[in-house]
Write a structure and sequence with these properties.
- By secondary structure, the protein is mainly β.
- The protein folds into two domains: 117 residues, Jelly Rolls (Sandwich); 69 residues, Immunoglobulin-like, CATH 2.60.40.
- It is built from two helices and 21 strands.
- It is elongated.
Length: 226
């Protein structure tokens, strides 16, 4: 009986250890050599025969991941996208301009492949495993929603006024109707603004006029010349 209980206890410990291992396994364990690939930046790698390289994408919000691929080789290169748990994600669309796709494998024509794959993703971390059958130059450019956006945006509008001149501003709401805004100036000694949006240029310098309607604000930089 004691021997039987000892065997049961050993099995319970073994099962518990296996369960704990499964729970604590992470993407670091699954993809220890993953290299971060930034959105919009080309990745170029000369791969040896039968080699694999893994790349990491940090997607900031729901959107589309596009991978534009080119490679030179006499055989195929596979591109397999996985989530942080190692699950394979299927492409939503793919196209080849030179060569052809066979599921995840990109086959060249006359030694050259060119094409793309797209994936519909949610916010999270993803991994692209690139495998080359017989080596060659592989390059791809990933494009996906990321926090490191290089897109330029307007900080505020600007206008130049001569000292003593005035400018009447007004607010138009998103429904196309005129609205009442709260007006303020960052430097009233340079450019003041009334409650109705009338700006008066007082002295040489720069001031920022702010119009606020609810939680929405618009800023106008006023440069006053002598």
């Amino acid at each position: 009986m004691k021997k039987f209980l000892s065997i049961l206890l050993s099995l319970a410990v073994a099962v518990t250890a296996m369960t704990a291992f499964a729970v604590t396994a992470s993407a670091i364990d699954l993809f220890p050599d993953a290299v971060t690939a930034k959105s919009g930046k080309e990745v170029e790698k000369t791969m040896s025969s039968m080699s694999t390289k893994t790349y990491k994408f940090s997607v900031s919000k729901k959107g589309t991941l596009e991978i534009k691929v080119t490679h030179t080789s006499s055989q195929y290169v596979t591109f397999v996208l996985k989530d942080s748990d190692g699950g394979v994600i299927g492409a939503s669309n793919s196209e080849a301009k030179a060569g052809y796709w066979d599921r995840s494998a990109a086959y060249p024509r006359d030694g050259v492949f060119s094409g793309y794959k797209t994936y519909n993703l949610t916010k999270g971390t993803y991994y692209l495993e690139v495998y080359s059958s017989n080596g060659g130059l592989v390059s791809f450019t990933p494009t996906y929603p990321s926090t490191a956006s290089t897109e330029k945006r307007v900080s505020y509008l600007s206008a130049t006024l001569e000292k003593g001149s005035t400018l009447q501003l007004g607010a138009v709401l998103s429904d196309g109707k005129a609205g009442t805004a709260e007006w303020s100036s960052s430097k009233s000694s340079v450019a003041s603004v009334t409650s109705k949006g009338k700006i008066t240029a007082k002295a040489k310098g720069t001031a920022v006029i702010t119009a606020k309607v609810g939680s929405s604000t618009v800023k106008i930089q006023i440069k006053v010349t002598a």
